[in-house]
Structures are given as structure tokens and as C-alpha cells.
Amino acid sequence: MNPADLQKLRSGDLETREAHVHELLDRARTHGDESAIAALHVLVREYPDFHRSLYSRAMNHAVVFADASLEEPLLAALGDTRYNCQAWAAMGCAAMDIRAAVPQLVTLLDHPQWIVRGETVTALKSLGDASVVPALAPLLHDDADWLRQRTADALADIGGDAAMEALWAEFEQRRFPRIGYLASTLALFTPEVVPRLLKAAESPDPDQRYWAAVALGSTGDERAKPTLERLLAEDRGVTVFDGEVRAAAKKALRTLRRIQAAIAEREAGPEAEREAGTAKAEVSGTDG
Fold first, then answer.
1. Element (H or E) spanning 141, and its range?
2. pTM attached to this predicted model
3. C-alpha to C-alpha distance for 81 and 259, rounded to whole angstroms
4. C or N terminus of the chain, fewer CB within 10 Å?
């Protein structure tokens, strides 16, 4: 490591040191510069000796210098309340696939700082498994819309029966009027979730029919088509936010067709290429 790279992190005004962090990241990203990477590793290992601003800027791009050897200092920073960079330590743990961080991350889900809660959910999205679902599920009814959405995305990525049940329970209870994020994430559990959504589309509650239609369109499942066509033709229900069920069904049918067309194109791709190759070979043979 070039001593100057480390010295520029330790001395000078904060703005100059911050600029040097960005320079190191750029060199590491663009050229795989070993000296830059080594300096960033020192920043992580000896984090209490550096300004929090330098640490947070580096961790925003942790994947650039990821290394398994940084697990111990990252776990230490994750629990360090005095240094107050737990959100960025969570970023680093996710970028470096440090699964040993999961127990600590779970304890941070009720942290008083919104940024820590948000980055913790994001980290658990990539590091967690079914065991973290009970801890994540309560955040589906957090007051912050963005956190509810991020949590739904995390549960969908984790997958499995427990995650689907957590999302479905919130879909049924519907504590908030706009739950498009629940509809879109539940659609990812196709084909298992489709029968439930079809049943929800028959609910006496227009809000539930509305969101069931939205979700059914996103499944791409052919079983959704008759129900969506029925809702479009017959349903005059209106939601608490003045959304029309038939309008949701109309949009869902368009979404359904787009997804099905994309699937068909993807599945036909290799066969179409083979047919084109065969035809080309036959033409070439004829010309010869």
C-alpha cells in the first residue's frame, strides 16, 4: 500500500479527506488498484480512528472493496452505538455477504434512527432466511410507507411459506388504503398464491377486489384472465381512495398480457434461433 493513500485519509480538512475516499473508490472500481483497496480496508478495520463521514462514504460503495477479512470489524461497527454508523455497517455486511451479522441485524429492526431500520431491512433482504420473517413482519404496519414497501420487498426476496403468510395477513387486514406493494410482492409467490387471489377477487369488500385484481395481473397466470374479465365487465365497486375495481381489472389484464407475451418470447427464443440457424444452413447448402 502506498503510505500516501492512508495518510490522506488521516490528515487535512474533512472535505479533502472525503474527496480522497471518493478517489480511492474510483481507483478501486475502475482499475482494481491494490493500494486504494488496502487503504479502504484500513479504514474499515480501524474505523474508530476515522471520521464517521469517511466511513459512511466508503460503505455506500462497499462492494467495490469487499473482502471476507473485514467481517470482524464490520460486526464490531454494527454494534457500536458510540460511533453511530450502524446503518453503514449494515450496508457493508450485506455487500460482503456476512451472514454472521443476522442476529445483530434483527436487534436493530426497532432502532430509533429510521436510516438504521431501513438499511437493516435491506441487509436482511440479502442475508436473511425464514428465521428472520417473524422479526420483519411487524414492519409491514410501520407508519412509514417507504419502510413498509422495503419490508415487503425483503420478505418477497426471502421467500417461503412464512414470508407469504406474513404478506397475506397484511393484505387481508389492510391497515393502509394503498397497498400496491403488497399486491406486487404477493404476485411473486405464483403459482401458490393464485387461488387465494381469485377468492379475494370475490370479496364483498371493493378494496380487496381492487388489490386482488392488481396482484392477479402481475402473476402472469392464465387462471387470472376469466376473473379479471368478469371484474372489468361487471364490477362497479369503488375503493376508499376512489379507485374503480373495473379500472384496476382493465390495467391488470394489460399487465397480464404483457407478462405472458414476454414469457412466450423468452421460451420461444432458443427454438426460434435454432430454426433460423437451420434455415440459414439449408439456404447456404442450396447456394453451394
1. none
2. 0.86
3. 46
4. C
